[in-house]
Amino acid sequence: MILIAFALLLAACRHAPVRDGLGAEVPVGEAALLAAQSAREADLAEADHWRMQGRLAVQAGSDGGSGRIDWQQRGGDYRITLSAPVTRRSWVLESTGGRVTLSGLDGGPRSGSDAEALLAEATGWRLPLQALADWARGARSAGPARIAFAADGLPARIEQFGWTVEYREWLPGAPARPRRVFASEGGASVRLVVEAWGQP
Description:
With 200 residues, the chain is of the alpha+beta class. Helix content is 24%, strand content 46%. The strands form two sheets. The chain has an eleven-stranded antiparallel sheet with strand order 8-7-6-5-4-3-13-12-11-10-9, covered by helices on one side. The chain has a two-stranded antiparallel sheet with strand order 1-2. The longest helix has 19 residues, at 28-46. The radius of gyration is 20 Å and the shape is globular. Keywords: Cell outer membrane, Chaperone, Lipoprotein, Membrane, Palmitate, Protein transport, Signal, Transport.
């Protein structure tokens, strides 16, 4: 009886469906890719001190801008510097201990506890900053998400919070990190070209 019960248990495990972040069943081959992605995301979560430098373009309806970005992350704190070479202006969004300050604005710095609301109030750009920190590294943010993979097993697209994030080029490494990312939601879009990943 014990052997029969053990065999039935194995059969049940073998046929138990694997589900994606939205609860839909996925094929067996894709289940392996999801498992590898989850392991990769766990590695990225542990490496919570990082620096990303590159070029950024943001479009929100008829408004937009482009320039250079220097994102330094230290656990829950970060410092994001945006600079526009043409106008020679720069802005710094800094979060320390849950307090956010946006400097470089006409009229002086602005502070608050909600980085996304602060950025939207100052620039009109409504960007999911916390999710962008994950998406920029090729990871899903916390919450329901759909993910599609390229032939090399790396993410090709993530759909989350109404945004579609496309990965168009990757930099080699362990773990691999994106080089070219395009995110869009309605009339808003973010284009990112990473030139270097490193430590803050």
